[in-house]
TrEMBL record:
NCBIfam families: arch_flag_Nterm. InterPro entries: Flagellin/pilin_N_arc. It comes from Thermocladium modestius. Keywords: Membrane, Transmembrane, Transmembrane helix. This is Archaeal Type IV pilin N-terminal domain-containing protein. The chain crosses the membrane at residues 20-40. It comes from the Archaea.
């Protein structure tokens, strides 16, 4: 009988060891899942809080524009982004076919023809909802009163905005 009792105890110990092993595996799995969850939510929170800092693209719209009978072009630019906008080029486009009728760049000294840009001034609009006025003149004889033209402004980063108006 002693042998049977020893064998019975040995069987019972193996059963307890299996239960303890299973409980330990469950505890390790739960702890690993909690650590993974905490790491992942911390990573997402950190990434989301940095998102506004990543957006450094120039954003602007042309809120209005006019072309006078003397060829003076005035465009009103609103900065809708969070970085300053620098206008690097302005074009007057034929609204019908999109051809460039007049061009302007900072420091330009030409007549305004596409191959001979005129001077563009001023060229910067600070950030955060600021509005600036960009002016240039076109001595190109192709600007006709009563005809519709599109004013296109292009920033130094290649972002463009347009506004269609009628020459007076």
């Amino acid at each position: 009988m002693n042998i049977l009792r020893v064998m019975e105890r040995a069987r019972n110990k193996k059963g307890i060891e299996a239960i303890v092993g299973a409980v330990l595996l469950i505890v390790i799995t739960v702890v690993a899942a909690v650590l993974l969850y905490l790491w992942f939510t911390g990573y997402l929170t950190g990434t989301a809080s940095k998102a506004p800092q990543i957006n450094t693209v120039q954003q602007f719209i042309v809120t209005g524009a006019s072309i006078s009978s003397s060829g003076q072009v005035t465009a009103y630019v609103e900065n809708t982004g969070n970085v300053p906008v620098t206008i690097a080029q302005a074009n007057v486009l034929n609204s019908t076919n999109g051809a460039v009728v007049c061009a302007a760049i900072p420091g330009g000294s030409g007549s305004g023809a596409p191959t001979s840009p005129t001077n563009l001034s001023p060229t910067s609009v600070s950030s955060g909802g600021s509005v600036g006025t960009v002016t240039f003149s076109c001595s190109s004889p192709t600007l006709k009163p009563g005809q519709s033209y599109t004013i296109q402004l292009i920033s130094n980063s290649g972002v463009s905005a347009e506004y269609t108006t009628t020459a007076s």
